[in-house]
Amino acid sequence: MTTVSNFIIPAVIFLIVGFGFTAKDKCYESFLDGAKEGLKITVDILPTMIGLLFGVGILRASGLLELLCRMALPLTGRLGVPGELLPLFGVKLFSSSAALGLLLDIYKEFGADSTIGRIASLVMSSTETLFYTLSVYFLSVKVSKTRYTLAGALLSILAGTVASVMIGNMM
Amino acid sequence: MLNKIWVIMILLGILYGGFTGRMEELTAEALNSAQSAVSLCITTSGVLAMWMGLMRIAQNSGLIDKMTGALSPVLTFLFPKLPKEHPARGYIAMNIIANMLGLGWACTPAGLKGMEELRKEAGKKLKPGEELTTASDEMCDFLILNISSLQLVPVNIIAYRSQYGSNNPAEILAPALAATAISTLVAIVFILLRRTFGRTGRREK
What we know:
Chain A has 171 residues and is mainly alpha-helical. Chain A has eight helices and no strands. In chain A, helix 2 (27-61) packs across helix 7. Chain B has two domains: 1-46; 62-197, no CATH class. Helices cover 74% and strands 0% of the residues of chain B. The chains are: A mainly alpha (171), B mainly alpha (205). Chains A and B meet through helix 1, helix 2, helix 5, helix 6 and helix 7 of A and helix 1, helix 2, helix 5, helix 6 and helix 7 of B.
């Protein structure tokens, strides 16, 4: 299966360039054109990244995140959620790169094949990062009133997390 | 909403850090995180530019139109008010496909372009000179779907698992599919229920 994963990206690239070639598109010029716009997008995303990583950094360094997790522990423990995963759930709402750091810590400490490692893998692949996505997408179109988006997205993330914990515990 | 959450994070963090005597770590982390955000953006900007370049080929060669055609029934089901020929549909289709294949960095450019087209569509309903500040139904629904992210192959996670000595890195494939399907299903049910029972139009929050 890892080999299948290894083939996905080259296959997609081959498909796109091959299709462009047969459709007689000036592929290289199109590519440069798009890449230029891609770099502009990076510049647009950068402030959001700084703002969110900065906020999460303060929350973690102050110890407040740990405190919140300890407070939630009695409740979540009863539901079969390993306490070590709570910081990952919290951080993943804000930044996928910070969450990735926590995921790799979990792999190192408990092993990728432990129940905790499995649940963490599932949670990471079930949904996107909430606040990062919200902020990047809505800021890009200068929309500030996001209405029911947060509620819907949170509900979906909650469902994905509950499912990950249940499935991970069964594996 | 984001404004409030961000301010609370910063202020409570600093107050609690002062209370527990962690000001030194906090200072270091504040400076460090801002710095690492920039280096992260720079390292990923190459990949992002690469996907944007490939996407432009797909767009100019008509591949996106083909894929939109294939996903048409799904798009019409999810966004019934969006006209059939609307350019946002192509980008939304591309975003969904990139998501399903686990190509995280290919999702963002397509998603942002889709959002831009949805903004143009929503802007048509405004009076001249009026600024669009409230998200349209389509924008909200698209973002909820995007965040719920239906991912068929978690390419990155499988790679990290093998890097960290898993005996069977790909064993999470089917369970991950179940988890991501549940989160997306809940998102779709939420969107449909809101469309049926929620107030329509541009409600202020």
